[in-house]
Design goal:
Number of helices: 4
Strand content: 35-45%
Number of strands: 14
Radius of gyration: 18 Å
Shape: globular
Strand order of the largest sheet: 3-2-6-9-10-5-4
CATH architecture: Roll
Oligomer: single chain
């Protein structure tokens, strides 16, 4: 099969996110200028540089109760900081529930009974039991083609690792089985890891 993305879709559902998968999920906590907290998952997310460590998150869509973007983007624009929490398989139900379109005044972490703790470098909460959390400071927001598509670029200022996920000095993802986003309504979890050394030429 071949089709141009500008033409009518020849399939019942768009396969784009199933093709570009698995994708890591940024479970983002923010605090707005008014002190309200927000928690939401973003699957257009990845690491893009080592030194300094940097990440990107794409925000798509708007909310009627926000001037620009959704609650997460609004908070980031207001404060310049956010925390990316990494979710494991045990977090799947809470992560999915936090994706609902709650009002701007709803604290999803409190609603779902998820404990939070303060970040150390930025003024933002994090999920206390997350296997890992990245304290991030906004560096720029890039408008993308399409309505309400924006790329958030940030520098990672600090890292939290849950002690039970460390094994012989390595962060062992099999200890918590990171959630990944696939296409449609599908998710995955990393259950198997293998190593291959980069070849020398």
């Amino acid at each position: 099969m071949f089709y141009r993305t500008a033409d009518p879709l020849p399939l019942p559902r768009d396969p784009f996110t199933a093709i570009v998968s698995p994708r890591p999920i940024a479970w983002i906590t923010t605090r707005g200028a008014d002190g309200r907290m927000n928690l939401a998952p973003y699957s257009f997310f990845n690491a893009v540089a080592y030194t300094p460590p940097q990440v990107v998150v794409s925000s798509v869509g708007d909310k009627p109760d926000r001037m620009q973007g959704k609650d997460t983007l609004s908070h980031i624009l207001e404060t310049g900081s956010f925390c990316i929490n990494i979710a494991g398989y045990e977090d799947r139900e809470a992560l999915n529930q936090s994706s609902a379109n709650y009002g701007a005044d709803v604290d999803e972490a409190a609603l779902l009974g998820l404990a939070t703790a303060e970040c150390q470098v930025i003024d933002c909460p994090r999920l206390a039991q997350a296997p890992a959390a990245l304290e991030c400071r906004l560096t720029q927001i890039v408008p993308l083609d399409g309505a309400a598509n924006r790329l958030v670029i940030a520098r990672v200022e600090a890292v939290h690792l849950r002690d039970d996920c460390l094994q012989d000095g390595r962060f062992d993802v099999t200890r918590y089985r990171p959630l990944t986003r696939l296409g449609y309504s599908d998710f995955g979890a990393v259950d198997q890891v293998f190593r291959m050394k980069r070849p020398q030429v």
